[in-house]
Write a structure and sequence with these properties.
- The protein is mainly alpha-helical.
- Helices cover 79% and strands 0% of the residues.
- The protein has a domain of 64 residues.
- The radius of gyration is 27 Å and the shape is rod-shaped.
- Belongs to the DPM3 family.
């Protein structure tokens, strides 16, 4: 199962539960007392998901590794490729 399919299935299941609560298919005093919170719960979930996404992105940015050895190796390969192209007659 791909990630997109997982997200779609979880979202549709959550929407089905929310719609059943809003539509009055499930009767319970607790649901009737907290109907205002149930109505705005999708907005709350979107805000929480946004906070989670920002937190994950910032964490990954702050813990990003610098690869000094790989950078030096790449620079050496670039110089080697330039020399090879120069030897083959390409000039810039």
């Amino acid at each position: 199962m791909t990630k997109l399919l997982e997200w779609i299935s979880v979202t549709s299941a959550a929407f089905a539960v929310w719609y059943s609560l809003i539509g009055g298919y499930v009767k319970h005093p607790f649901i009737e007392q907290n109907m205002n919170l149930i109505i705005i719960s999708p907005i709350i979930f979107v805000i929480l998901f946004g906070l989670y996404a920002v937190t994950v992105v910032l964490f990954r940015v702050f813990t990003f590794n610098n690869c000094e050895d790989a950078a030096k190796e790449l620079q050496a390969e670039i110089l080697e490729a330039k020399k090879d192209l120069h030897d083959r007659g390409l000039r810039w």
